[in-house]
Each structure stands twice: as structure tokens, then as C-alpha cells.
Design goal:
410 residues, six-stranded antiparallel sheet, single chain, 5 helices, 27 strands, five-stranded antiparallel sheet, mainly beta
Length: 410
């Protein structure tokens, strides 16, 4: 707090003093509500402005203000191959991201992932408060991570780690104003060595191992269900959906689901209850996700009609309370291909696919992305037609990574 008071006293030192000058605290409050592009220009006014805007406390205040008063846009990450660069140049990651409007998903801009990898292509881990996280699982001997802030054109490569193959997520600890990347082993069981869990802290710029702290059921094998989807960050917690399979005499005898949460502030794991909805049909796909800022479970089952899929949406109204699970609705979706995401307004984004016969007699599959309102059942087709899976994440402008160790501008 003392540092913050010093910054408030220094932020608007004038070359001359006037009685009608605004108090420094008011000006600081005004600046904290301005867009990122304006603040980047205002840093050139004078040294006090430069240092004050880059202060972590100011960045945290600016992040809090824009997280509450602004609608989020969306970043669509499409695994798109770009021609290899010429001989002798560094290899591009070959990836593009598209920034779209929050309700219409109309394209605002498109930008290329700025960092490179020695092998393979980056996998999108997720986003949190406008910070995007990518990983290269194909790196020999270690996982290569990048945190990226497109709004200020800066990125940071995280320190190397030797963790095994994990499922990672990104979250924000409000108590210490710290972004963290957290990973758990994709598969583990009690008959094997204890599972490893890794946590990276942006404040300390380092990785560490943490213990699960939860008793595992004997003879059970745990496998991640949300392997290729971004992990939901809700109520200060990251979440994993695990499939638990009992092994007796070398055979699988029982299967159940487990919901694991990680408190980004306290760095403690906890098991959360799932809705009592077992044995209600053949579920071929399920995800733990978020719906209007609350924890949600979405399940897909074969529908009664051909080419139809039944989609059930559960929402936890009070975080961590079993009785607060509420079955929001059940939808029937024709020609369902895969689930993409929920929007901030609670619209369901899915991809549909249908078989078509071309003019030359060949059978082709046409894909389209559709927004579905769970309340009105209204459907709206959006652009960006692709024939493969892609990721969507909420996005907002922020100043995180403005100044710091090993941050690269481009």
C-alpha cells in the first residue's frame, strides 16, 4: 500500500502547480478505466506516468475495472497450416488466432501466433483475463509454454520443466494478483507412483510440484475426460473431469466420474460433487465447463430420432454445494458434430455436420458452426466454416506482461 501511495503522489507531477489541478487519486482512477491503447500512448507523457502505468497495483486495478464493466470479445484459435518459411529463417508456428465480437462472432481482426517452436505446433491451453497460454507437447524432454498478451504485443516463454505429459489450465489468483498455470497427469492410479502435479507462478516465474492431498480409491485408474478442451476457471478454481475405472484381477469392473478442483489462491485440490444423473442413457461425450460464470456439466447422448443428439446442461447454482446442481435444460440437436463452448451470455456454440452429394457424385461432409439459445432454442449460423475442431476463449484487453523479466515485444 505504501508503494501505491507513492505512485499516486508521483503520477501527475506537473511542471507548474495550479490550484485547479485534479487530485492525483482522481486522475489515477480515470486512467485505470481507459483502453489499453490509450495507456500505452500516455506512458510517453513523462517518467512518472510511465512508471505508474507499469506498476503492478495499477495493472491489477485496470484489470479489475475492465473485467467488470466491459463485454468480452472472443479469440478463436484455428489450427491452420501456413507454408513453411524459406530456408535459413526461423520456423513459424503456423498458427492464426481470430478476434471476434462477443455476440455475433463476426471477425474483428486476425493475428498470427508470434512465437516459434523447434518441433510441432502449439496447443491452446486456454485464456484467463485476456492472457493466452500455449504449449508445445512435442518438445523433446520438456514442455514449452508461452504466455501471450496480444493487446500489448508481448509474450513470455516460461521456464522449462521436466513434468510428464499433463493436462494444463490457466487461472488467476486474486489474493496475490498472480497468474498460474496448473497441470495434472493425464492418467494415474494408486497402483503406480503418486501422480505429479505442477504449478507455475508468474509472480515468482518458477515451477513447483504440489501434492494432491486427497485420498484416492484403491485399485482405481484415473483418466482425464477434458483432454482437448480448455479447463474451466470458475470461482477462483480450475477444474478437471476424471474417469475412474476400477481394476480387479487385471480387468475393468466399474467406471465412475470424479470432479477435481484446484484453488488457485490456496493451491489446494478438492473433490467436488457431480449431479446425480447416472444411468439415464448412453452418454458418448461429456465436459465440465462454465455457464454464465458458474460451473456447468454438459452431456451428449444419442437422440430418439436418426441423426439427432440429446444435450443435457447442468449448472451448479452455488459453488461446491451438491444440492445446488440444477438441470437447466435438455436440447435436441440435429447433425451434431462436436461441442465448442458456451458464450458469456449462455449461448451454446456447437459444430454441425451433414453429408452432401456433390455434382460429380462424390459424398462430402459440410460443416457449420451454430449458436443455440438454450431458453428460446433459437439457432444462428456463424461464419468461420472449418472441417476440424477449434478452440474459443473469452478475451479482454489488459496490461499484464507490460514490464517483467524475459518478456518479448514484437
Amino acid at each position: 500500500m505504501s508503494q501505491m501511495k507513492e505512485d499516486r503522489g508521483a503520477i501527475l507531477r506537473r511542471w507548474t502547480n495550479h490550484d485547479d489541478d485534479l487530485p492525483d487519486e482522481i486522475v489515477l482512477d480515470i486512467l485505470s478505466k481507459l483502453p489499453v491503447k490509450s495507456l500505452l500512448r500516455f506512458r510517453c507523457v513523462c517518467k512518472p506516468w510511465y512508471s505508474s502505468i507499469a506498476n503492478p497495483n495499477f495493472i491489477s486495478t485496470h484489470l479489475h475495472n475492465h473485467n467488470h464493466i466491459h463485454h468480452h470479445s472472443y479469440v478463436t484459435h484455428i489450427p491452420r497450416n501456413i507454408p513453411e518459411p524459406s530456408s535459413g529463417s526461423s520456423r513459424s508456428s503456423g498458427q492464426l488466432c481470430t478476434l471476434t465480437c462477443d455476440r455475433t462472432f463476426e471477425t474483428i481482426s486476425e493475428f498470427r501466433v508470434p512465437f516459434t517452436f523447434q518441433s510441432g505446433f502449439p496447443h491452446f491451453v486456454g485464456s484467463c483475463n485476456g492472457i493466452l497460454c500455449f504449449i508445445n507437447y512435442n518438445a523433446p524432454g520438456s514442455n514449452v509454454f508461452y504466455l501471450w498478451n496480444p493487446s500489448i504485443r508481448k509474450f513470455k516463454r516460461l521456464p522449462d520443466n521436466q513434468f510428464p505429459v499433463m493436462t494444463f489450465g490457466i487461472g488467476y489468483g486474486s489474493q496475490n494478483n498472480d497468474f498460474k498455470v496448473v497441470g495434472i497427469s493425464r492418467t494415474f492410479g494408486t497402483s503406480k507412483p503418486p501422480p505429479e502435479f505442477g504449478v507455475y507462478s508468474l509472480n515468482s516465474d518458477s515451477w513447483k510440484r504440489v501434492e494432491l492431498g486427497i485420498s484416492l480409491r484403491p485399485n482405481f485408474f484415473y483418466d482425464n475426460v477434458n483432454n482437448y478442451k480448455a479447463l474451466p476457471f470458475v470461482s477462483g478454481h480450475l477444474h478437471w473431469m476424471l474417469k475412474c475405472v476400477e481394476h480387479v484381477g487385471g480387468q475393468e469392473r466399474h467406471s465412475a466420474d470424479m470432479l477435481l478442483s484446484f484453488d488457485v489462491n490456496s493451491e489446494k485440490f478438492e473433490q467436488l460433487p457431480l449431479p446425480d444423473d447416472e444411468g439415464r442413457g448412453c452418454c458418448f461425450m461429456k465436459f465440465i465447463t462454465s455457464f454464465k460464470g458458474k460451473l456447468a456439466l454438459i452431456k451428449f447422448e444419442s437422440g430418439a430420432q436418426p441423426h439427432s443428439t440429446q444435450c443435457s446442461i447442468w449448472v451448479m447454482r452455488e459453488y461446491g454445494v451438491l444440492d445446488s446442481w440444477n438441470k437447466l435444460c435438455v436440447l435436441s440437436i440435429e447433425n451434431f458434430n462436436f461441442y465448442i463452448s458456451f458464450t458469456n451470455d449462455g449461448l451454446l456454440l456447437v459444430q454441425k455436420g451433414s453429408l452432401l452429394v456433390s455434382t460429380n457424385g462424390e459424398i462430402e461432409r459440410k460443416y457449420k458452426n451454430v449458436l443455440i439459445d438454450p431458453e428460446t432454442l433459437h439457432e444462428k449460423e456463424i461464419g468461420n466454416e472449418v472441417d476440424y475442431r477449434f478452440d474459443v476463449a473469452a478475451y479482454m484487453e489488459n496490461l499484464v506482461l507490460l514490464d517483467g523479466a524475459n518478456v518479448v515485444s514484437y
